[in-house]
Every structure is written in C-alpha cells, then in structure tokens.
Amino acid sequence: MKNRYIPITAIVVVFAIAAVAGFLFPPAVQDNPARVVIDNSGGRVVFTHFVHADEYGYDCADCHHDEIGQDRPVACGSCHPAAFDEKFRVEHQQSFSSDEACLRCHADVPVAPLADEDRPDTENIPLRADAFHGQCMSCHESDGGPYGEDSCYECHAR
Ligand code: HEC
Ligand code: HEC
Ligand code: HEC
Ligand code: HEC
Ligand code: HEC
C-alpha cells in the first residue's frame, strides 16, 4: 500500500469502528431527554430539556439537586408530590434505588412504623407546582427566559 493511502485508510478504519461501537452500544438517549412533557391543570408544558442541559450550558445538578447517589436523575415529583398525603406515604418508598435517597429527607434510613419524631418536616420541601415554578422562574429571572405575570403562555399551552 502506498504511503499516501495510510491516512485515509486510518480514517475509514476509525469510522468503521465507531459505527460498529455505535451499533453495539447505542447512546442512552433517555439519559438526557430531548423534551419533557409536563401535564398540569395550568395547561401542558413542553420543556426543552436537551436545549436547557446542552445549549444553555447548565450542569445536570443545577436542576437535579437530588444528591442521592443514583446514576440517573429521578423525577422531581418523587420528592415534590402534589401533596404529602397517604398516596405519597405509600408510593415514595418505591421511588428510589438507594438508601442514600431516604436520607435526603429522613434523619435515618426509615423502618416502618415511623415514630413521630422520625417524620420529616415538610415545611421546607416545596410541593410539585412550587418546585417547578420556583426552579424555572428563579433561573429565568437571573439568566433570561420567561418569568413573571405575563409569561404564562410562553410555557403553558392555551
Ligand atoms: C434546566 C434544568 C435541567 C437541567 C440542566 C437538566 N435537567 Fe433533566 N429534567 C429537568 C426537569 C424539570 C425534568 C422533568 C422532571 C419531572 O417530570 O419530574 C427533567 C427530567 C429528566 C429525566 C427524566 C426523569 C424521569 O424519570 O422522569 C432525566 C433522565 C434527566 N432529566 C436527566 C438529565 C441529565 C442527565 C442532565 C444533564 C446532562 C439533565 N437532566 C439536565 C430539568 C433539568
Ligand atoms: C431526592 C429528592 C428530591 C428530588 C428528586 C428533587 N428535589 Fe427539590 N428539594 C428536595 C428537598 C428535600 C428540598 C428542601 C430543601 C433542601 O433540603 O434542599 C428541595 C427543595 C427544592 C426547591 C426549593 C429550594 C431550592 O433549592 O431552591 C426547589 C425549587 C426544588 N426543590 C425543585 C426541584 C426540581 C425542579 C426538581 C427536579 C428537577 C427537584 N427539586 C428534585 C428534594 C428533592
Ligand atoms: C422527599 C422527602 C422524602 C424522601 C426522599 C423519602 N421520604 Fe419517606 N417520608 C417522607 C414524608 C414527608 C413522610 C410522611 C411523614 C408523615 O406522615 O408526617 C414519609 C414517610 C415515610 C414512612 C412512613 C410511612 C407511613 O405510612 O407512615 C416510611 C416507612 C418511609 N417514609 C420510608 C422511606 C424510605 C425507605 C425512603 C428511601 C427509599 C424514603 N422514605 C424517602 C419524605 C421522604
Ligand atoms: C438553570 C436555569 C434554568 C432553569 C432551571 C430553567 N430554565 Fe428555561 N431558560 C433558561 C435560559 C438561559 C433560557 C434562554 C433565554 C434566552 O436565550 O432568551 C431559557 C429559555 C426557556 C424558554 C424559551 C426558549 C425555549 O427553550 O423553549 C422556555 C419555554 C423555558 N425556558 C422553559 C423552562 C421551564 C418550563 C423550566 C422549568 C421546568 C425552565 N425553563 C427552567 C434557563 C433555565
Ligand atoms: C417557565 C415556565 C412557566 C411559566 C412562565 C409559568 N408556568 Fe405554570 N407551570 C410550569 C410547570 C413546569 C408546571 C408543572 C408543575 C406541576 O406539574 O404541578 C406548572 C404548573 C402550573 C399550574 C398547575 C399547578 C397545580 O397545582 O396543578 C398552574 C395553575 C400554573 N402553572 C399557572 C401558571 C400561571 C398563571 C402562570 C403565569 C403567571 C404560569 N403558570 C407561568 C411552568 C411555567
């Protein structure tokens, strides 16, 4: 083989390997969802997730502040339910794959039945709507993006 073909051969080989690797190990697209549709009584919100995480240059942890040592962020609603009611009390115990998650709210890894003093103080844990509005708006206020009285339909579908 003539020397001048070596670079092109090398490039072809690299692409071939990349193609096979891409076929065998497809990127886990769901790890950074393109869009997240958030249905709610104010009108559905289509959140441009990938644009926020990629083009606007934020880190995952800027929004996913769970700090629970899981590889994949969990839904905000796992910790910010519509209400801290009976449904939450039962279902949230299955939302996490690590004990570390429990310690985000409980003083110790909980064992049912909980003593009264082991029940988390929910005063400082915003409910679902406040968690979303709070995070979306406070960042938009400082960095740009829709917020404030007249901004509703820049996020919500009519
Ligand atoms: C600007 C804020 C923001 C950034 C930055 C961000 N996310 Fe998200 N992400 C969200 C919101 C809001 C949701 C919707 C959660 C919900 O529906 O409860 C979400 C949902 C997700 C979900 C789906 C969770 C589920 O089970 O419903 C995954 C996975 C995810 N993000 C991963 C990532 C990764 C990985 C990064 C970093 C590359 C990242 N996110 C960066 C705000 C963000
Ligand atoms: C593993 C549980 C957990 C998950 C998941 C979680 N949070 Fe939180 N969040 C909390 C707790 C607990 C607090 C109370 C204050 C604190 O301890 O940080 C809180 C506080 C907040 C606050 C008010 C304080 C602050 O930091 O501004 C906002 C807003 C918020 N969360 C939004 C979100 C959004 C949006 C998501 C999803 C992208 C999310 N949270 C995911 C547990 C969680
Ligand atoms: C976002 C905060 C949060 C996280 C994270 C969390 N919990 Fe809880 N947990 C609560 C709240 C709030 C209650 C209800 C307290 C009350 O009844 O006053 C509760 C109650 C409980 C109860 C009592 C249920 C009942 O019927 O009274 C158990 C058991 C429990 N949690 C286990 C867990 C386990 C296990 C984990 C981790 C896998 C976990 N929790 C993670 C907030 C949380
Ligand atoms: C950490 C910061 C941050 C958070 C959190 C955040 N945004 Fe944004 N958002 C931005 C920035 C920056 C822009 C771009 C502003 C510009 O270029 O004018 C933007 C733009 C937007 C826009 C207009 C352009 C587009 O991409 O669609 C919408 C709609 C939007 N955000 C929705 C949301 C929603 C819904 C949430 C909460 C679930 C959210 N954002 C949370 C930073 C943030
Ligand atoms: C930056 C985007 C954004 C803007 C701007 C915005 N919202 Fe929202 N809103 C959301 C998201 C995301 C949710 C989803 C929270 C949830 O699932 O409960 C939501 C939820 C709601 C809900 C349902 C709450 C519940 O308890 O079910 C109402 C009502 C609402 N918004 C009204 C408004 C009004 C009124 C305005 C204008 C003053 C507004 N929103 C502006 C993103 C936005």
From TrEMBL:
UniProt xrefs under Gene3D superfamilies: Cytochrome C3
GO function terms (MF aspect): electron transfer activity; heme binding; metal ion binding
Keywords: Electron transport, Heme, Iron, Membrane, Metal-binding, Transmembrane, Transmembrane helix, Transport
Residue intervals of the Class III cytochrome C domain: 30-109
Transmembrane segment boundaries: 6-25
SUPFAM superfamilies, per database record: Multiheme cytochromes
UniProt protein name: Cytochrome c family protein
InterPro entries linked: Cyt_c_III_dom, Multihaem_cyt_sf
